[in-house]
Amino acid sequence: MDKITIQNLKCNKHPNKSLQFIQVNDVLTQPTSTKPLFYCSSCFNHDLHLKSINYLMIDQILQEADTNIIPKWPPVNNYQIISDLIDLTSNQSSLDYVKQITDFFHQFKEEFLNKIDVIQKKMINETLKYPIDTQQILKRYQEISNILQFKQILNNEQSNNLQDHSTLCKQFISQMESQKDKNTELLQNILTQANQLQTNFNMEYPHIIKQQLLTFIDQISFFNLDIPEVNSTDYNNARNYLETNITNQNNQIGGLKLTSDLIMKLVSNKSNFCSDQFLSKLSESLQSINPLLKQFTLNTAVFKENKEQIDFSKISEERIHLIEEYVKHSLALSRGEQQYEQEVKDSLEIKQMTQIVDSKMIFLRQEFIQQFEKFLVDVKPFLKQINFTNTFTDKNKFDFFRNLKDNKLNILFQESLPNLDLKLFATQYNNGQRDQVVNKKENGYYEIEKLNNDSDVNCISNTNLQKDQKYIFRIKAELQNEGNSFLIGLMRSSNADQTGGYKEYLSCHLNQSVVKFNNYGIDKQLKGVGFKTSGENMIELRLCLQEQILEVLDFPNYEYKLGLEDKYKEKLIQFDDLRFYLDIFSKGSKLVLMDVKIVNEFIN
Question: For 586, which of 33, 58, 417, 484 could close a Cys bridge (C-beta 3.0–4.6 Å)?
């Protein structure tokens, strides 16, 4: 249907009106007889249910179909697509890609050639400052030497005799000889300039620049998919690949491309403390020459053998600052700055640590102390992480022991457990090695636990007790059930595998409340009435075989004291194989040997 025909058609409802609209959407969903396809302006206005998106002006199709994209046509699910196409085609210049490319290269060639002309003239003018060829050198030589004037004198026909000719030549030669220094200087300048140009002249570098320019030109592209630096997906993948595999490539010499990412990864290490602004500018600059960088292949490992890059990005700013401070500290020490080193040694951290390791109670070698003090000076920045303002639980006591005289220290040391090397073990009596376990804890305590059966078993010390020594044994009882009991005292090692230690009658029998019951030797009341302990259930056994002392006390109150019956005291002198002895009767009970001492005197 052409324009003339459509203009001649009139609306059936409004005969005086020409048809102006045609329905172009939802046609399939309507019965053919219910609604007309064409509308005049009156039909359009009178239809209260009309959807404008479904109608298109007939004139718009007839007049613009050859030149424009028609709104609402063809039927689509999303008309924003057609709207976007209209917006896109409205700016013709932005779509003329071929013209844009042509204009770019035309302008590029013009600017490029102009730039080359400028540089060419500049280089030629620079070169003309030097005697650059044989003719120029010869011309300067003739000017300085006056060789042509000499030639003219020799060819002078006015000289009628040899004498006159000799006189003229002699005058000229004398004149030139008188300026020998000047001649030498001028000729040397010519030689120097010529050699200087020869030395400075470099054809290799321009060839490199030319190749680089050609490489850059090869990289020109107007499409992002061809440009890794712009194609964000490929770019990020390449960057992630580099970061993941740079360590693996470290020992694979050859084939590692030099890229802006590689340089940035090395430079942007947090330990370099580069500012974000600098890194951003550097990244932009490197990206601009990335095509050139990729032409170079590093035929060497990035890192030293058996070394990996430290990933400082995973270290907190606080620790980075600490590392920075440590490096500056180490440099100051390496420069031998005596005043700085002395200030470090005088710092609170160093002084307190030195006091601790230099305490006589620690028994360290002087050589070790000196090495440790030097180490403290070296790592002083890291000591700031320790709070030295409240180091000691009791500074007065620390100073007291630190300043003890050697003789007093020796006396104190004689009372300590290390000299005894005392151990406990279960004997074979009544399957004691099966039914009880003896464990030495990290703190030096011995823990004895009854595992099976309610029967007497022996646990004794590994060495015989010395008759002239004063011993103190302290144990803690952990008896859970009523009726549980244990014994503490002495027994002969020769009887340890055959009979119960209580039969020696050198023991004290205590129940679950750590209250004495039954009589097995240590039953004589020396202090208090009866016997019981504090809530900690701690017991102290004192003995000196030579002085016939064998006593049990409540510790630490010392309110009760039981001693060995007089009728058994002779045994303390009679037998040479007496040992410390414990006996746990009930299953599940525990005894803990917490302290053993040799003392000069018993107190309380």
Answer: 484
